[in-house]
Amino acid sequence: MNRILFVDDELRVLEGLRRTLHPLRRQWTMEFVPSGREALDRMAAGPFDVLVSDVRMPGMDGCELLQQVMGRFPAAARIVLSGHCHRPAVLKTVGLAHQFLTKPCDSETLKAAVSRACRMRERLRDGRHQQLVSRVQCLPSPRPVYAALLAEMESAHPSVERLGRIVARDAAMTAKLLQTVSSGFFGSPQKCADPAGWTALLGIETLRLLVLSAGVVRSVEPRAPSSRFLDGLAEHSLRVADCAAAIAASEAGDRAGIDLAYLGGLLHDAGLFVLAEHFPERHAEARALSRAEGISICEAEKRGLGTTHAEVGGCLLALWGAPDAISDVALFHHAPSRSPEAGFGPLAAVHVADAVAAAQDLHLPDEAGLVDVEYLSRIRCAERLGRWCEMCQVLKTREAAS
C-alpha cells in the first residue's frame, strides 16, 4: 500500500484533506503533519512514496523541505499543493517538485496527481531506479538547439513563434515544458499537446526565467561519454514525431490526436536519454550486446541495468504529470501488446514510426521483426501497416532532399 505524507501549516487545510481523501484509506496509508520539521521526522522513521507539501510555511518553508527530501529521501515523489503562486517563489520549486497543484484543488485532480506519482513504485521495484527517476530534473538538449534557444531569447526582438518552433523540435525542452504546463507551475494546468502553443501560453519572460534562472533546460555536455549518442537520439526522436503525426493525420485524426501522436513520438525515448546520460558505459555495453546477440535493446538493458528505458521513460513522464496517453507511449512503444489499448491512437502511430526509424538507423532491409503485428491485428490496423511504412519512407526522402 502506498504511503502519502501531507504537509501544511494550516490545520483546517489538513482536516479538509483528511475528509476529502478518507474514501482512499484502503488504497493509501496517509499521514498529515503541520510542519516541515515534523515531515522530515516522519520520513526518517519510515519511507513514504509521495510527499504533498505547501510552500509558504513558518520555520522550514516548502522549498527547504523539498530540497531536504530530494537529498535525504530521493525515491519519494514530491508534489506542491499551494495557494502561493508568486512567480519568484514558484521558480524555486520548479526543479524540486515533480508536480505543482494550486489551491483550491478539487479532489479528483489531487487524486490523479498522487496516483500518477505512485506508479513509479509500481513499475520500478528497485529503489536505485526509483531514486534515479525521482532525481531527474531535466533532459539534455543538443548543443545547437540549446544555443538557438538562447540566441532567440537574448535577441533584441525575440519572437514567441520562433521560440515555439525551437521548443517543438526538441524532446528535452518539450518534456520539461510539458511538466510545467501540465502541473500548473504558472497558472491552471493545460491539457493541450502542442509544444509550440505552450511557449505562447507561458510567454517570453516566463520562458526566459525558466531557462536562465531555474535552469530547467540545459545542453548535452560536449565531453560527456554519451554526447554523440544523445545528439543522434534527439534526431531520431524528431523523426519519429514527424512520422507519427503523419500516420495519425492519415487516419483522419483531429488536431488533438495528431498533436498527441507528435508529442508521443518526440518523448517516446525519454528514458533512453536518462539511462544513456547517467549510465553511459553500461548503456553503451547494453547497445553493443543488443547488436551482437540480435536481441532487443530492452532485453539488453534489463540484463545490464536491471530496468529498461521504456520503464524509466514511462515512470518519469507520469511523475511529471504527463497525460496517460503520453506516458503509456513511452512505457509500451516497444511492446504495445502489453498495453490496454483497444483501438488506434498515439501508441500505434509511434510504435510503427519508431520501428521504421530504427530499421533505417540499423540499416535493416525493412522494419519486419520490429513491428508488433499481433497488436496491430488486435486494434484492427494490420492491413494499414504497409501504407504507414511507405509514408515514413517518403518523409525521410523529403527531409534528406531538403
Can you walk me through this structure?
The chain is an alpha/beta fold and 402 residues long. It folds into three domains: 2-135, Rossmann fold; 140-219, no CATH class; 227-401, Orthogonal Bundle (Hypothetical protein af1432), CATH 1.10.3210.10. Helix content is 60%, strand content 7%. The chain has helices at residues 11-20, 36-45, 62-72, 87-94, 107-123, 127-135, 143-153, 160-167, 171-183, 195-202, 204-213, 227-250, 255-267, 270-278, 280-293, 297-305, 309-319, 324-332, 346-361, 373-378, 385-401, and strands spanning 2-7, 28-33, 50-53, 77-82, 99-102, 140-141, 218-219. The chain has a five-stranded parallel beta sheet with strand order 2-1-3-4-5, with helices on both faces. The chain has a two-stranded parallel ribbon with strand order 6-7. α12 packs antiparallel against α14 (270-278), α14 (270-278) packs across α15 and α18 packs parallel to α19.
List the helices and strands and how they pair.
Layout: E1 2-7, H1 11-20, E2 28-33, H2 36-45, E3 50-53, H3 62-72, E4 77-82, H4 87-94, E5 99-102, H5 107-123, H6 127-135, E6 140-141, H7 143-153, H8 160-167, H9 171-183, H10 195-202, H11 204-213, E7 218-219, H12 227-250, H13 255-267, H14 270-278, H15 280-293, H16 297-305, H17 309-319, H18 324-332, H19 346-361, H20 373-378, H21 385-401
Parallel strand pairs: 1-2, 1-3, 3-4, 4-5, 6-7
Helix pairs in contact: 2-3, 5-17, 7-8, 8-10, 9-10, 12-13, 12-14, 12-19, 12-21, 13-18, 13-19, 14-15, 14-17, 15-16, 17-18, 18-19, 19-21
